[in-house]
Amino acid sequence: MVMPATTEAYSLGTPVEMGKIEQELKKLWHDGEGAMTRASLMNLAVYSEQPGSLNNNTQLMARLTENHACRAIVIEADCNADDDLVSAWISAHCHVSSVGSKQVCCEQISFLLKGGCTIQLPSIVLSNLDSDLPLYLWWQEEFREPMDPQLWWWVDRVIYDSHGWSDFHSQIHLLALMQEEANQRIVLCDLNWTRLDNLRFALAQFFDHPASHHRLAKISKVRIDFALGFRSTAVLFAGWLGAQLNWRIEEVKSPLELRFIGASMRHIDVELRERDGEAVHEVALTSADVEFRVTYAHCGDLLEVSRTQGSETRHPQLMPAGKNDPVGLISEELIRGGPHRVYLNALHCVRDLL
Amino acid sequence: MNRAPDQPQANPLREGLSARPVPQPCSIVIFGATGDLTHRKLVPALYNLAADGELPPGVVIVGFARRDKGDDGFRSDLDETTRKFSRQPVRDEIWNAFAQSIFYHQSEFGDEAGYKGLAERLEELDKSHGTRGNRLFYLAAGPDQFEPILKNLKAAGLNQTCKGSWARVIIEKPFGTDLASARELNRVVRNSFTEEQTYRIDHFLGKETAQNILVMRFANAIFSPLWNTHYIDNVQITAAETLGVGTRAGYYEEAGALRDMVQNHLIQLLCLVAMEPPTDLSADSIRDEKVKVVRSLHRWSRSEIAANVVRGQYTKGTIHGEPVLGYRQEQNVNPDSQTETFVALRLFIDNWRWADVPVYMRVGKRLPKSATEISIHFKKAPAVLFNKDLRDLNVLVIRIQPDEGISLRIHAKVPGTSFRIEPVKMDFHYGTSFGKPSPEAYERLLLDAMSGDATLFARSDEVEEAWAFVDPIEEAWHAKKDAPQLYFYPAGSWGPEAADDLLARDGRAWRRL
Description:
The structure holds 2 protein chains of 2 kinds. Helix content of chain A is 29%, strand content 32%. Chain A has helices spanning 21-31, 53-64, 117-126, 149-152, 168-181, 191-194, 197-204, 213-216, 231-244, 326-335, 341-350; strands spanning 14-16, 36-38, 43-48, 71-78, 85-96, 103-114, 135-139, 157-160, 187-190, 219-226, 248-254, 257-261, 267-274, 280-287, 290-296, 302-309, 317-320. In chain A, helix 9 crosses helix 11 (341-350). Chain A is globular and about 70 Å long. By secondary structure, chain B is of the alpha/beta class. Chain B is built from 14 helices and 18 strands. In chain B, the strands form 3 sheets. Chain B has a 9-stranded mixed sheet, with helices on both faces. Chain B has a 7-stranded mixed sheet with strand order 3-2-1-4-5-6-17, sandwiched between helices. In chain B, helix 10 (302-308) crosses helix 13. Chains A and B meet through helix 7, strand 16, strand 17 and helix 11 of A and helix 3 and helix 11 of B.
């Protein structure tokens, strides 16, 4: 398909007047050449205050929409500008569908906001939603007051990355306010948690077999290797183990040494080690004489999982590791549905350590 | 569909993870390991499961076949074919690790000693790979080999398991050639494995859209009130393919379209469309409801069969602009063959929900396009206001393959000052809405069998009931006297005219595909 607005791969597309966006979108589809199908399963709004984010996020959307059909609403805000100004563009991301030669297209509306950002934001998002579809809001900034109820009332899932937060507790407090505004309806999607998905899956599968269950009650040591700057990710992992296995923190020996206590007053020592590698590079659980280990394989995008007991031969298996980049993490997040109760439990378990 | 019976209820680390629990480690023994099915479908499916992290560490694959071959030779063959047929590109790192768990065991199917050797080898693998005595036997050999394989598995004690482990057998169709042979096969299977251990595979049920029929019917409130004789005029099921008999003439000459497709795939699809809501999503609850549909199929008397079932055979013609041979001219086909390559049926389901709603089924080779679809044709709105002259009905179409999806035909006013109404189509395509491609049917079904979930597998009573429905038709066709006619149709057409007459008599027509 050749569409006027998509001749440049990551162009913002056609500039449009604010009041004519829907009209221009219709034209965009009407004027497109060749067979194409517009697809949308959700509204995905992205908000950033980074200069140049409009272009960067447009590139991300081009890749994301290959697998996640949505109406993308990409917003860059310059809150320090002197004058209030809103500019808008429309464009389309077209891909050949996975089942043939059909062109599947998703539309993007881009906004550059200058001046009173937080005041403009709700009306801009709400007036451009594709009806009847959920609203996912990917908030690339730290949250700050005021948390506008007009906006949060409509959000179904808010996506953020706690990894870069400067003050964890104030951010969590703001998230709680947002939840209050939305009657606890919003699903909190922390990309720092999503980063752990494949590791959690790789570790969990050791214990699917009933014969392995008793091992969970005998875990005495946990080692989590993380990369510089990803301590919070490692702590979340420890929080997940703690929450799911009914451990509670007994002692924080140092920021890298924790001691949990289990249901039967058993101690579990958790060692966090900073090492070169992926965000969380390796996890090892010791349960009596068995070690369960999940580590990144040399090729980087696979995990090597193994269980060793005494002299037993090790048969490591490779499993998908997922990608620690925005497209990989957001894709993972969009595939998943339902609430994130487990995340909230993990967070609750270790929030004082974050 | 339901929680797999083998999976523990309480792995606390599993909570909230989107991927399903991995099954228990096991040995998968494939009988007929050098055949097409193993190379094209089974091993590529297992590789894809491994690449997606859905297989547990410790799964081993043991190929059992007659040909002289070693582990390395077998791995090398599979390496080549998996690269060719895998859904996703083969990655060397994953394949190399996966291939280390593939072994080959050479034996005749009827050689008892070969099974003793197999048992010893599996025990060794249990120790070296932690497969814990769990065995999945896949019968990918010809049906004539089922009995010796099953008998010898039993003789070698491989149908038995120690506490905490399991043994299961997957059987490929055909599940018999008639009711008597199906019963005999079920008896043979039961001599070695219980019904709970037996998984009769029908790959149509592993397709995403087939599974989605239940979701569409029972997760959407709008369809439920309409899904009955009060609102549905007729149901049509079409399984069309452009291919001819190809290299399958040996089998097809004996089977024909009715046995090859209707007895299993089409009746299974019909069951999903027509069944009552199950009490829960357990395998037996769903299969209980499915079997009731088959039991309710109206049995035609011999004299009624000609009026309700049409059989046809393709003659030479054109497919996609290319001339093709007629069936009787195909290799290994009897020049006087009476085998049907096309069947059209007019069925009724004699129950409260479906009384008087005809179900039209057609299946055929060398038809103009390849498509498997189910269409639900709704009754006309009252013939007042706009409907006096409308010919088209509202139609809900469930596309099974290719281009899986659902469409709904409704009526809309054509823009303008006059009141002209035309049908328009609302369309949902899996490939458009969900970028991620669906797993292959065999991936889903193998994983289910490893997990002990039999929902998508046919139960013995379903199979027998389906044969009980099909057998009288076959008997009528093979009767020495007054056998219904075999019609001929040129390749590239939609079958014989008699198939159109089947609906025309009711004032209906096949949906245009």
